[in-house]
Design a protein that fits this description.
The complex is a heterotetramer. By secondary structure, chain A is mostly helical. Helices cover about 75% and strands about 0% of the residues of chain A. Chain A contains 12 helices and no strands. The two termini of chain A are about 15 Å apart. In chain B, α5 crosses α10. Classes of the chains: A mainly alpha, B mainly alpha, C alpha+beta, D alpha/beta. The structure holds adenosine-5'-triphosphate (2 copies) and magnesium ion (2 copies). Chain B: It is a multi-pass membrane protein.
């Protein structure tokens, strides 16, 4: 088990470094630089001065190594867009709303999705099943910004039940959270349905029935548990996945989260922030995969007790 | 016993495809999905024949933003273009993006997955690392970056969708091939002196048909959605080429009153994706002869 | 307590210091400071920090007398030194608006100092005493006082203490204007201002708090928030006008922004190095149709670089900008492309942005695309680029045709003509034109000046340097709770809203 | 009143293309304490009938019956409560495949305990204690540990016992055993059957034993039901069925039990061997986990065996499950790389050849795999499968290939119309025949047949063996026949190699070996063959590994001519008859 963990960590670290190099190179191959003029030319002398100030006059590999060296000390530099704070401060500040939204979105969407998926699997080919797959498909196909707009129109403008957008008061969180929740809901409904159907088709379920166990116990204890194992592997990555969803939801609901920085850091060539955000996401994904790997191993007795898959 | 189940047709040989076709036909949802998809594809191909107006011509500027009517089924957009014509032409772009990306992902994903799964070892290690790289970078962010480098556009979108679409197919095929590699029919082929490529081509890939179809079908909506998202972020296909993503994005500006500008493209996208996945599911069931009437 | 919530600013801002950066400024940074002078809603120049000004005999030196008793919000007195320091720093530290003080202000030694070839002390700027500023220009600048509407003080005592970072943090920011800062949300650059206690200048605010929220700028987001009572006014896009009009018939406000969208070229690159091609484009645009259909309610036709109502606006110039397909075809044929045959595919670049430009330019680009196809038989592709890249393309001549928007910076024709002067924004070097504009800029007789500018524009028309397209109109819906002079239309029927922030936010009240 | 009463049971499955009538009017009764055997060919509706009795069929099944009662409850009308009583309490079932019958994520103890708790109101701890007792009852020695094991940690035989323990846990009135031994080798099969009989007697249960193995029937039941094509052909007491079968199907069934074949002609010593294995060994690297430590070691699956297959002969390899039979066969085919040793085909050593050089040999040697289900590609039609060797070697046009494949389909006794079927549409026997056709289409000289008949009912088995025999004569084929079905081995092969724990422990001409087995393991093996006559039933004894070791035969130097040695070695004790023994002075 420990050897397994170490091997996984090594391969994740490898991936992380490769990705950081790719991103760094891509970032710098975007034409233009952070101090290009917006409307009228900045004098060359001034520009050179600023580039030097940020260390952008050095060769790329030096810049990369410097940056990664900083990263090793948890120093992600200072964002060009907001030089009054460090990247770490900026992210920890802007992340809070994104995390609240994304977190509650997944935590609400996932269980609902699981319930929907279960209902669909247990009532295969009934109207519940069709409803569930329609909801799942629509949830995945209608772009978030359209659902956002629809929700705002319905609940804020027409019904006037909820505020349209904004952040600090918790009642303003409701609509964006619903928007966020739709994607995990749809995805989980899909996954759960197929995982449940797979489990229901396995012979041991017949055996359980033959033993005279109640259907409830069969479903909630045995089938659920067995279906949960494959689901574990999608849970965490999905959580991270909400980070990119935040771009849309936050824009539509005026949430002061991290989302806008993903776009703006690319647009204004804010290299430090951009790199930090990309690394953050990459790191989170790596961590998520690692953790789900371990969770999978822990949940699955075949691996836990030392057998092989 | 099977003798009592399947009628032995007097004509002798039944073609496997004929049988797949039978199975497909008996799946109503799939038939509907397939029909809708077929109609969409035909509409895209024959767009000039079935649209009354040029999708890019601003022929109705004076009636701009008009609501659906008998002459303009889906109304007119803000630039005085017949919206029905634009939706129909939009199918061309969305479907091409979807299918090219899907095709590419299958073309790359299958061989790589088969290689990794069959040979294992170092090849597998390398391919798995590549896959890991792709799965830890969110496509949207990569698309934004790439879009900034290449300045966006049609090609970029197809490229990105393909770049990230193959991972799923590859993983599915790899897992499948891995589990089938140990099966005795593979051994049997080896015993007959078949080369690895022959085995991969003739045995392992056909047996992976269902993950392949799943992957193929999943990457179509992903690509279409990516186009829509990128349009929202301003890195989409440049106008005036009508694309659904672009239309949706513009449509939400008008959603307060001129609802048709958002509703029709969104519906078109949703229907296409829905039809594709129904069709894909049906196709998978039909092509897999081992799946009996479930 | 009255709080007004308004859409304003851009969602990204670095320093709350207008004199440090204009394009990356914190929202409302100009409202925090008091300019030398500013405009009221009729575009009358009104002294603010200055009490009066005078021009020397040779026209080269201006003397501004400041009001006494102005203080910074931390109690420090506001002196002439703060104003002079503001420009001295701007000239030396890479101010992104530095060009303004060169071509609009024409301050002596500015160019040399910004390019690093001369010392800052050689600048034509002097704080004679605490309340007197002397400015020397390279040529007579009769309109210089209106240029000072963008001259804000910088708290030298703060910069001495903290450097540029004084403007990064609410705790350190000091203000000299009618408002003080309470909070600043950096994620989206929204701010909360309060009425300043220390402000003694003209135009004291009538509201207690002001929230400026750039995320409300986009009408798609702003209007729902407005309808739900979260904002006090909202800009509208075409699609929203009917709903807003229906719900708030009395709340609709329009403003013809002093701005122009025009087509510009790389004059040295084919096919636009041929004047006939450019003239063909000039005649191929049906501005009337464009503004009555595609840009209904949000733009009016532009026949000149100058918008109507702007000083120097000349109807004779405007009259030449007709839609004449025959003439356009003829010019194109003369250029060797009859019916567009053989004309290369070109790509027109525009800048991605929000606000009124964001509302009109993409649609306009598509309109032009269709129009040029139909009238000239030319295929035009469209590409939207982020600001810096677009600018880079323009400056570096990386493309040959652009849609360029420009909004006035100070109220004088030299502002608009200056953007084509001696390279300027587009790298145009037209000696004939430069000569006339240079003459006009320093001419002190106003009628002669306007005539000269009209001549200069005639050169532009004859050489087809640009195609003026439209002047944007912003349309907004204002809550009936907001009253006061600020929301009353001016004599031309326009309401300026936040475009004249100092006037507007100090002339509204909320019920 | 009988415990089980079924009258006119009909079951049909609805499918895309119409419906399948799996059971068409079956009636039978079982009384308390009685054992009923159900035999019949594969797919004749045996499992479905019992599934219907417990209402375990999928929703696609349509079940009708004039009468179907279990323990006094009308099964078709049973509500939730009734079902709970029927399932487990009135009737318990032992399923065909124990490997997939347990929920992989719960411990064995938990699964037995929950069954107990579902029917009796007792606490978890007591239930677990009872589970342990039950496991002891089914002769799982380390029951205390096994309770905490997960299913994958048990071997097939242990799982089968745990399954029986679970079925017994609710003390059912009738035990339904659905082919409880097909997946097991003879010795374990015999143990399990004995166990079932024992507990049946102990608990006084009724038994329904479903099987296609007449030997199992002869061993265990009182009354027999013969099914064919969803109908009952014949019913009667065991003795009556075995002695005076009335129905034709029953007659062929019984006849196949006693078939004999002509021995091969010619003197084996005189002919050059077609295949010779010299010192062939296989060691698998294994990783053992000890807590967090992993130790690497080697597992000797096969230890230096020598096997000679003379031309046109049939040599059997028999032995317990896991003794290395398949591994030896695969090594002979170079499908598994041997660790050591040589493989001589017609005198050429092929153990070092590269894939290209192997191709000509691949045409001459073929293998029929143990598991016919996974040996056929499910995505290909039979024609494609059978023609595959031609396709790989590029022999003939595709039309010729198809034609030839169809011809072989006929030769193995399947109609040409089957050509476009898929493997899953065939019965086990049919699949075996397809696998054989594929192996023979290149007309090889050597065939390794790995348990070609293990999953078949007797009639089909007889057919296949006839076919092999015929082909041996026609093509001059030499066959390495791997099997643990000793009665077939006895009637078919020329000589026998007995493997035990990766070694050859005895080898000799078939008749001699069966008549005078020398090695204790060989004797245990022969003893485990199920009776083919109900009158021959008896109680058997089983030897443990230690007992076998202790009973290793001893021979003197004079008897064998070998050097004395305390470690066992293979010694020749008669012409062609060798046995592992300790040679003493
Ligand atoms: N779920 C199902 N759907 C369709 N057909 C089925 C289903 N289950 C069984 N059958 C069919 O019903 C028939 C009887 O099957 P059953 O399992 O009872 O055979 P069996 O006598 O137990 O055979 P075996 O010895 O192979 O176990 C077969 O033809 C089988 O194909
Ligand atoms: N790939 C492998 N890795 C490790 N051990 C293996 C492998 N393949 C087989 N073995 C082991 O080698 C031994 C011999 O296996 P083999 O399949 O040859 O047995 P067999 O005699 O054919 O048994 P059966 O009668 O059950 O088919 C078994 O103990 C098995 O667990
Ligand atoms: Mg069965
Ligand atoms: Mg074997």
């Amino acid at each position: 088990m420990i050897a397994h963990i170490i091997r996984r960590i090594l391969s994740v670290a490898f991936t992380f470094i490769v990705v950081s190099i790719i991103i760094f190179l891509m970032m710098h191959s975007v034409p233009g630089g952070p101090f290009d003029a917006n409307d009228m030319p900045v004098s060359e002398a001034v520009r050179a001065k600023m580039m030097a100030q940020w260390g952008l006059d050095q060769p790329l590999h030096v810049q990369y190594l410097n940056y990664m060296w900083g990263v090793l000390h948890l120093d992600f530099g200072v964002p060009f867009q907001s030089p009054g704070e460090t990247v770490v401060e900026l992210i920890s500040r802007a992340w809070v709303p994104s995390l609240i939204l994304g977190g509650s979105g997944v935590l609400i969407g996932a269980p609902l999705g699981i319930l929907l998926g279960m209902a669909a699997a247990l009532n295969r080919n009934s109207w519940i099943d069709y409803l569930a797959s329609t909801v799942a498909t629509l949830g995945l196909t209608i772009p978030v910004f359209v659902t956002s707009m629809l929700l705002i129109l319905i609940f804020a403008v027409w019904l006037n039940w909820l505020p349209a957008s904004g952040w600090p008061q918790p009642n303003r969180w409701i609509l964006p959270i619903i928007c966020y929740a739709l994607i995990p809901l749809a995805t989980y409904a899909r996954y759960t349905r197929s995982a449940m159907l797979d489990t229901l088709n396995r012979p041991f379920v017949t055996v359980l029935r033959a033993k005279g166990l109640s259907e409830r116990r069969i479903i909630f204890q045995h089938v659920m548990r067995n279906s949960a194992i494959p689901l574990v592997t999608v849970f965490l990555p999905m959580f991270i996945g909400t980070a990119t969803g935040s771009i849309f939801v936050e824009a539509m609901f005026r949430v002061p989260g991290l989302g806008a920085y993903f776009v703006s850091s690319i647009e204004v060539r804010d290299y430090t922030l951009q790199m930090a955000l990309m690394l953050l996401i990459t790191f989170m994904y790596c961590l998520a995969y690692l953790l789900s790997d371990l969770a999978y191993a822990l949940l699955n007795p075949r691996i836990r007790t030392g057998g092989t898959e | 016993m099977t003798d009592t189940t399947a009628p032995v047709s007097a004509s002798g040989q039944r073609s496997p495809l004929w049988f797949a076709w039978r199975r497909f036909l008996s799946n109503k949802a799939a038939v509907i999905g397939g029909t809708v998809l077929g109609i969409l594809i035909l509409m895209a191909i024959f767009a000039p024949l079935i649209t009354p107006y040029d999708p890019e011509a601003q022929s109705f500027l004076t009636e701009a933003l008009a609501f659906p009517s008998a002459t303009h089924w889906f109304g007119i957009d803000n630039l005085g273009r017949d919206f029905y014509s634009r939706i129909v032409y939009g199918a061309r772009v969305s479907l091409t993006i979807g299918f090219t990306a899907a095709l590419f992902s299958v073309l790359v994903g299958i061989p790589l997955g088969a290689l990794a799964g069959y040979f294992g070892g170092r090849i597998d290690w390398v391919i798995m690392r590549i896959i890991e790289v792709f799965s830890v970078v969110p496509p949207l962010l990569a698309a934004l970056l790439l879009g900034a480098i290449t300045r966006g556009g049609y090609g970029t979108i197809v490229f990105i969708a393909a770049l990230f679409g193959w991972v799923q197919v590859c993983l599915l095929v790899r897992a499948q091939v891995k589990s089938f590699r140990e099966k005795e029919f593979v051994r049997a082929a080896q015993a007959l002196g078949a080369s690895p490529w022959y085995i991969i081509r003739r045995h392992l890939i056909p047996n992976s048909i269902s993950p392949i179809i799943i992957g193929f079908v999943l990457s179509i909506p992903l690509a279409m959605m990516l186009e829509a998202s990128l349009s929202f972020l301003g890195v989409g296909v440049p106008p005036p080429t009508p694309t659904w993503g672009q239309m949706i994005n513009e449509g939400i500006d008008f959603m307060f009153f001129y609802w048709h500008l958002a509703v029709f493209p969104t519906a078109a996208l949703a229907i296409t994706v829905l039809a594709t996945s129904l069709f894909g599911d049906g196709l998978r069931d039909a092509l897999d002869p081992t799946l009996k009437g479930r | 307590q009255t709080t007004v919530v308004a859409p304003s600013g851009s969602t990204a801002g670095t320093y709350m210091d207008y004199m440090k950066t204009v394009y990356d400024r914190g929202t409302g940074s100009e409202l925090l400071q008091i300019p030398i002078a500013t405009f009221d809603k009729e575009f009358e120049l009104t002294p603010m920090a200055a009490e009066s000004w005078s021009q020397s005999e040779d026209g080269l030196t201006w003397t501004f007398k400041l009001r006494s008793g102005l203080v910074w919000s931390d109690g420090e007195p506001l002196t002439a030194e703060d104003f002079v320091f503001a420009l001295q720093r701007a000239a030396t530290s890479g101010y992104d608006f530095a060009w303004y003080w060169d071509f609009a202000g024409g301050i002596k030694g500015w160019k040399e100092v910004t390019e690093g070839t001369a010392d800052v002390s050689t600048l034509g700027l002097k704080a004679v005493d605490d309340l007197t500023i002397e400015v020397t220009t390279v040529a007579p600048k009769p309109y210089f006082p209106s240029v000072t509407s963008l001259w804000y003080p910088v708290p030298k005592h703060k910069v001495d203490e903290l450097g540029d970072d004084w403007a990064l943090d609410v705790a350190n920011i000091v203000s000299s204007g009618p408002f003080e800062i309470e909070s600043w949300e950096k994620s989206n650059n929204s701010v909360v201002f309060t009425k300043s206690d220390t402000y003694t200048g003209p135009w004291a605010p009538q509201i207690d708090r002001l929230e400026l929220d750039p995320t409300l700028n986009a009408p798609e987001v702003g209007l729902p928030a407005f309808l739900a009572g979260d904002a006090d006014y909202s800009f509208l896009n075409t699609g929203q006008v009917p709903v807003a009009t229906q719900r708030y018939p009395d709340g609709i406000r329009k403003n013809a922004v002093f701005a122009t969208s025009y087509i510009s070229y790389d004059l040295d690159a084919a096919p636009f190095n041929d004047v006939n091609v450019r003239r063909a484009f000039y005649y191929a645009v049906n501005r009337e149709e464009l503004t009555t259909t595609v840009l209904k309610d949000i733009a009016i036709p532009a026949g000149s670089i100058l918008p109507p109502g702007y000083p120097g606006y000349n109807p004779d110039v405007v009259a030449q900008a007709t839609f004449d397909p025959e003439k356009a075809k003829q010019f194109l044929a003369d250029a060797g492309f009859p019916n567009g045959e053989g004309f290369p595919e070109v790509e027109i670049w525009y800048r991605e942005e929000g606000g009124y430009n964001g509302a009109i330019i993409p649609a306009m680009a598509q309109y032009l695309q269709a129009e040029f196809k139909e009238v000239l038989g030319i295929s035009l592709n469209i590409r939207a680029l982020p600001g810096p890249e677009w600018m880079d393309g323009l400056r570096g001549k990386k493309n040959n045709i652009f849609i360029a928007p420009y909004e006035y910076d100070y109220l004088d024709p030299s502002n608009f003509y200056g953007i084509f002067y001696n390279g300027g924004r587009h790298g145009y070097f037209i000696p004939e034109y430069d000569e006339i504009v240079a003459k006009a800029d320093s001419e002190s007789d106003w009628d002669t000046r306007y005539k000269l500018y009209a001549e200069a524009e005639q050169v532009m028309i004859d050489q087809g340097l640009i195609v003026p397209l439209v002047h944007p109109v912003t349309i907004a819906v204002v809550s009936d709770q907001i009253t006061g002079d600020g929301v009353q239309p001016n004599s031309l029927g326009f309401t300026q809203l936040d475009r004249l922030g100092h006037y507007f936010f100090t002339h509204i009240t909320k019920q | 009143m009988p415990l089980v009463e079924i009258e006119g049971l009909r079951v049909s499955f609805s499918q895309y293309d119409g419906q399948i009538d799996a059971v068409r009017g079956v009636s039978f009764t079982v009384n308390e304490g009685e054992s009923l055997g159900i035999v019949g060919e594969s797919g004749s509706g045996k499992s479905v009938s019992c599934g219907a009795l417990l209402r375990l069929l999928p929703t696609t099944a349509k079940v009708t019956a004039a009468k179907m009662t279990l323990d006094g409850i009308d099964v078709l009308k049973a509500d939730k409560e009734d079902l709970k009583r029927i399932r487990g309490r009135s009737a318990a079932m032992i399923f065909q495949d124990p490997m997939t019958a347990f929920d992989p994520v719960f411990t064995i103890g938990h699964q037995i305990a929950e069954t107990i708790q579902a029917h009796r109101d007792i606490g978890k701890r007591e239930a677990l204690a009872e589970a342990e007792q039950l496991l002891l009852r089914v002769e799982i020695k380390n029951a205390a540990d096994v309770v905490k094991y997960y299913p994958h940690q048990l071997s097939g035989g242990m799982l089968q016992r745990a399954m029986i323990a679970m079925a017994l846990s609710c003390r059912p009135k009738v035990l339904i055993a659905d082919e409880p031994t097909t997946a097991l080798d003879v010795t374990i099969q015999a143990q399990i059957l004995q166990l079932i009989k024992k507990v049946q007697a102990e608990f006084g249960m009724a038994l329904i034993m479903i099987t296609h193995d007449l030997g199992v029937i002869a061993e265990t039941v009182d009354r027999v039901l013969v099914m064919y094509g969803g109908e009952v052909m014949e019913e009667g007491s065991v003795a009556q069925i075995f002695e005076a079968p009335r129905h034709d199907y029953t007659k062929t069934l019984l006849a196949s039990l006693h078939s004999r074949f002509e021995p091969s002609k010619g003197d084996p010593e005189a002919i050059a061997p077609a295949l010779e294995l010299r010192g062939l060994a296989k060691a698998y690297p294994i990783r053992r986990r000890n807590g967090f430590r992993i130790t690497h070691g080697e597992f000797q699956a096969v230890q230096a065996v020598d096997v000679v297959l003379p031309r046109n002969r049939i040599v059997a390899i028999v032995g317990e499950s896991g003794s290395g039979k398949t591994t030896t066969g695969l090594m002979a085919m170079r499908l598994t790389e041997p660790s050591r040793g040589q493989i001589l085909v017609d005198g050429t050593d092929i153990s070092g050849l590269d894939p290209a050089a192997l191709i000509p040999f691949r045409k001459r040697m073929q293998i029929v795999f143990q598991d016919s289900y996974s040996a056929l590609d499910p995505m290909l039609t039979l024609t494609q499968i059978i023609a595959e060797p031609l396709h790989i070697h590029g022999l003939g046009t595709s039309r010729e290939q198809t034609e030839k494949a169809l011809g072989w389909l006929e030769r193995v006794g399947l109609p040409r119309s089957f050509g476009s079927r898929y493997p899953h549409e065939l019965s086990g026997g049919q699949r075996q025949r397809v696998a054989i056709a594929r192996a023979l289409i290149l007309e090889p000289s050597v065939l390794v047949a790995d348990e070609p008949t293990s999953a078949l009912d007797v009639t089909v088995k007889a057919q296949i063996i006839n076919l092999l025999k015929k082909l041996q004569a026609e093509l001059g084929l030499s066959i390495l026949f791997i099997s643990h079905d000793l009665s077939t081995v006895k009637s078919l092969t020329d000589s026998v190699v007995v493997m035990y724990r990766g070694r050859v422990v005895e080898e000799g001409p078939t008749e001699r070996l069966f008549a005078e087995p020398q090695h204790p393991y060989t004797r245990a093996l022969l003893d485990a063959i199920p009776a083919t006559d109900p009158r021959e039933r008896g109680v058997r004894t089983f030897l443990s590994a230690d007992e076998i070791k202790a009973q290793t035969p001893r021979f003197t130097v004079i008897q064998t001519g070998a050097a004395p040695n305390a470690t066992p070695q293979l010694v020749t004790i008669a012409p062609g008859h060798r046995v592992e023994a300790i040679v003493t002075t």
